[in-house]
Amino acid sequence: MPSRGGWTGRRYRVGWIHPAGLQHRMMSSPWAVAVFVAAAALSVGASAVLVVRLERLGVRLGLSEALLGLVAALAADTPEITSAVTALAHGQHDVGTGVVLGSNVFNLAALIGLGAVVAGGIKLHRRVVIFEGTAALWIAALSIAAVMNLITPVAALVLALAVLAPYVYVSALRPSGRSALPPRLRSWLAGAVAEEEQELADAIHPGKGGPRDAAIAVLALVVVVVASAAMERTASTLGARWAVPGVITGAIVLAAVTSMPNAVAAVFLARRGRASATLSEAFNSNTLNVIAGLLIPAVIIASPGLADALRVAVWYGVLTVATIALALAGRGINRRSGALIIAAYLVFAVTVIADAIRPPL
User: Fold this and answer.
1) What are the pLDDT digits (tens) for 105-163?
2) What is the end-to-end Cα distance of the chain in Å, rounded?
3) 161, 187, 249, 323 - which has most CB atoms within 10 Å?
4) H or E stretch including 111?
5) What sign does the dihedral 111-348-315-144 (CA atoms) show?
6) 177: pLDDT confidence band, cut at 50, 70 and 90?
7) Which helix or strand (DSSP H or E) is residue 121 part of?
8) DSSP 33-68
């Protein structure tokens, strides 16, 4: 029978990859903690390098600011995605699902909530909130449906891509190419994308990249993937050894560590008066997390349907709705709303931990 920590305790042939294998190799807890800290530092640091280098290459390729924002979000998500895929590949569904959905909750608090508190408020265009928020709500709803097994992972992925594909297409268009949009939507969508680019332009100022940037990006990607996989394996080992439920390891510990670049980015942007970019960055990051870190792996290797992940998925959906509502009501997120989002994350963390450690009836 699986434990609440999400692993069966059987012995696997691949020694150090599975938590039981690590225990079998008699890795001491202090050594495992040291490996986790080192891997986390490498993963976070390399992902920051990856973001910068990919942005520079994007400028070289002539990508729009909106599409550059998507590229930056995907690069920043590499630690979360790698950790989630590693956990799912080793049968630890609650850890893998928890990393993705817990990271998404953390992103809302760190990027939008913390950004608003530090900056004293975030001014947002109404059309940008609707444009970004519609896709964000759709992905959050699909996440909940997939975790509850209301729809298959294949169906969830198809429905997610049905929204992401046109979103990427519209975001990729230069102003001169927006005349190709349907006439009835042209004015509104063109305006929404232009306003989004106005918000992102203040945050993204990379120079043109070259072969050196490409080489560094490849190296950084390798470091992120290897370090994130090692971080997840070590965290799962320690969680199993200390009887920590898998949902806590994934949705609280790994989610916060892998999303730390987002918190740093929020403070960086807020202190320089560029916090308006954080809403797009948070929603883009969450969308790509779900598609690349949850739905695609679920189609290939495992189903995400776990009762332990349901609470995390619901919190992700509820906080997404609340963030959009606050942004629309106040034409942005003021400091009080930002503090409310952060407080909601703290309540989320407490309730997830309390529910996971509560003894079964």
Assistant:
1) 999 999 999 999 999 999 888 888 998 999 999 999 999 998 888 888 899 999 999 99
2) 17
3) 249
4) none
5) positive
6) low
7) strand 121-123
8) HHHHHHHHHHHHHHHHHHHHHHHHHHHHTT--HHHH
